[in-house]
Amino acid sequence: MFKFISCSSLLKRWTRLPFAFIFLLPLALYLTTTPPTTPLLIINPQIKLVSNTLPTPLIPLTNTNYFNWYDAETPTSYTPHSTYFAPYTIKPLSNTLYIGFSSARPAEWDGGLFAQYTANNDLQPITIVDEQGFVDLQPSPNNIYIPGVDPCCPDGWDYGNTYVYTPTTNTFKKYRNLPNVLHSWGIWYDESQSALYTVTGARTTTTTTPVPDWNRTGQILRSFDHGQTWTVLANRDGSAFPGQEGTGDSVGNHRAYDIIKFNNKLYLSWNDYLLVPPTYIWNICGLAVSDDNGLTWTRITDGLEPPLTCRTRLFIHNNHLLTLNNAQDELVAVNTDGVITTYPLPFQIDSWVYNYLATDNANRLYTVTDDGRIMRTTDFTNPTAWQPIAATNDTFVTLTYWPHTDQIIVASRGTNSNIWALDPATPNLNLPTAPTMTITLNNNEINLQWASSPTISQYHLYHSTTPYNPRVRPTLNSISGETQYFYQFQTPPTPFLTNHDSLWQQTSNTTITDTIRNTQFYRIRAGASPQLSPAPPTMVGAITYSITAPE
């Protein structure tokens, strides 16, 4: 057992020590508790280590409050959303990171800011864009290409936009020349032909708003002059819409989401809405391939059940083209022979994470999970090879690798949105094991209780009004070092009070009480404080941390 010793009591004890010892002790305590090189020490007379979780490996890229900075650098109509503001895409080119900040999730909220960060710690805005955010950036040797995800402010849906930035001349060009395009979701520059490809969601009529879903189409366009002019290569596959049957071009009767070249073939992700008027019955995405530079396309059907996640970026790693299944818990891999294989993940990728994969110079693959972890593997075909290297309570939205500094760059969303750098030399985390929870009903309250552990300093409890079902596969759970188990507790019908999977309590206690709801689901994580940025100077040292001693 432990008891709390007040700061004043501790100070009185210090006054009995020799002056030199009093002078040197604060410095010693500061050195032993400064992140990121030492564990957090809870100081008592025996200097006992009670937390075995190392401080964060995540170092803030800058000291900027990105939410406030974005708000100051953009027009008043570009108001950042308190939950979904974020840099949704970050791409490196030489010694510079190019960043696409969005007021909220792409195609949802007016406003986007294109910015750059150089290795000498210099963050600068380049320009605002007339779009509802960013979903992609495509660096080439000389330019950065940006698809216009949703024209706005004041642009409408009569044309879609493409943006081209040339760093050497600091020239930014906007081309508003994609007729009837509502959204440009992905862009790819093929150096071998000096050709720029973009994939869009367009309308099949000249009506601007509203545009019924049966009047939309996926499109593939190509430009040989860096976006100044475009040629439509493929569009609507209308076979799923009654009365609009046709062979189409297999690139989506609703949208096309991304395009990339792999093994001398073009691949794209297509999106269909299957419709029984006037109600949708399915929204499905898949892959198509072209071996003639986009002139004709064939849908890939083998090995693609269940369907794919629609908006995530296609990614090339270790002679495979990678994408994500619809449940976001399996990688779908196409090898150089065109064979498709799915590989289970021992975790789940969060929604609205478009750029969810990165590869370092040692050919290790990184991703971010829906519960705030950064995972790494040397073999994505083996579910047991994934290991955590950071565990947080934050919501990550993008990551990339920066060869110039040899760092993984990761970003989160919301009012406290941040961008961090992670050293690939960071060792794997040994996460503590979550305890077994006992749930009982006491009058009108739910009581949750679990056993204490000398190696665990904090517990993170989540609850939800919808089942986890399960969001992490139990058979793979322990292999990856994940520390959560899921519990379900059925209660009498009352109004729903919580959102899905919200962080409910962060506590060092081993018992907690909740209010009865309709149906409530719980999960628990064990560990120390969230591994985010290193503690600021005012939070370092024995006085700020809780001071404990044996009973």
Short description:
The chain is mainly beta and 551 residues long. It is 6% helix and 41% strand.
Question: What can you see in these coordinates?
Answer:
With 551 residues, the protein is mainly beta. The protein is 6% helix and 41% strand. It is built from 4 helices and 37 strands. A 4-stranded antiparallel beta sheet has the order 2-29-28-27, with no helix packed on it. A 4-stranded antiparallel beta sheet has the order 3-4-5-6, with helices on one face. The longest helix is centred in the N-terminal third of the chain and has 15 residues, at 19-33. The chain is globular. The N and C termini lie close together (5 Å). Mean pLDDT is 75; it is low at 1-55, 238-247, 467-501 and 528-551.
Shape: globular
Helix and strand composition category: mainly beta
Between the first and last Cα atoms, what is the distance in angstroms?
Answer: 5 Å
Total beta strands: 37
Helix content: under 10%
Q: Number of helical runs? A: 4
Estimate the mean pLDDT confidence: 75
Give the spatial strand order of the biggest sheet. 2-29-28-27
Radius of gyration: 26 Å
| Uncertain parts | 1-55, 238-247, 467-501, 528-551
- Beta-strand fraction estimate: 35-45%
User: What oligomeric state do these chains adopt?
Assistant: single chain
Main beta sheet:
4 strands, antiparallel
Features:
mainly beta, 37 strands, 551 residues, 4 helices, 4-stranded antiparallel beta sheet, disordered C terminus, 6% helix
Reconstruct the topology from this structure.
Elements: E1 2-4, H1 7-14, H2 19-33, E2 58-60, H3 66-73, E3 86-93, E4 96-102, E5 112-118, E6 122-129, E7 138-139, E8 144-147, E9 159-166, E10 171-179, E11 181-190, E12 195-203, E13 216-223, E14 231-234, E15 255-262, E16 265-276, E17 279-290, E18 298-299, E19 315-317, E20 320-324, E21 330-335, E22 340-344, E23 357-359, E24 365-368, E25 373-377, E26 387-391, E27 396-402, E28 407-412, E29 419-422, E30 437-442, E31 445-450, E32 458-464, H4 474-477, E33 485-490, E34 502-507, E35 511-515, E36 519-527, E37 548-550
Antiparallel strand pairs: 1-37, 2-29, 3-4, 4-5, 5-6, 7-8, 8-9, 9-10, 11-12, 12-13, 13-14, 15-16, 16-17, 17-18, 19-20, 20-21, 21-22, 23-24, 24-25, 25-26, 27-28, 28-29, 30-31, 31-35, 32-34, 32-36, 33-36
